[in-house]
Specification:
Elements lengths: L1 E6 L5 E7 L2 H47 L2 H22 L5 H10 L4 E9 L4 E8 L2 H13 L3 E11 L4 E9 L7
Antiparallel strand pairs: 1-2, 3-4, 4-6, 5-6
Length: 181
Amino acid sequence: MQTNPVINPYNQTVSNIKTITWPRGLFIFSLVLFLMLLFFYFGINYYTKIKSDYNATLDKEIENIRNGFSLEKEAEIINFENRLNNLSQLLANHTYLSKLFANLEANTHQKIYFNNFEFDEDQSVLKLGGVAQSYTVLAEALNAFSQDKDVLSVDFKDLKTGTGGVNFSLELKMNPQLIKP
């Protein structure tokens, strides 16, 4: 606050009266705030204009690139993309029997051969028909299958002595994760 001598209308000097200065401070604050708002307003408008010009430039470049491709090329690319999508869906649901064959090879006795092979994917059951050299060889093979962690159960269906040895058929309940990707 400032103190100024004030003269009354009767030309007499009155003692110093304190004047209030807050309206001048409010005016300066308001002026600074207004100038800042103007600066931000024009700054944001300028920034928006630059970005919209940049977007327009990118749109023109995209259009030029698109015009560079013939319609046949574009259709060919779309067709190829669709085929890739279909293939990825097929592979995601594909059954991988290579692990099953590797497991079967590892557990099969050397003196046994298979002449029938069926696999039920829904129940994960492998039906095998084959010939073993003897009952002992067949028992060793069954023991190997029953000790395998990927074989959940072993069931005999048929057992006959034939000309080449012991003919058999069995069902192996396999772990479903063995055939999944």
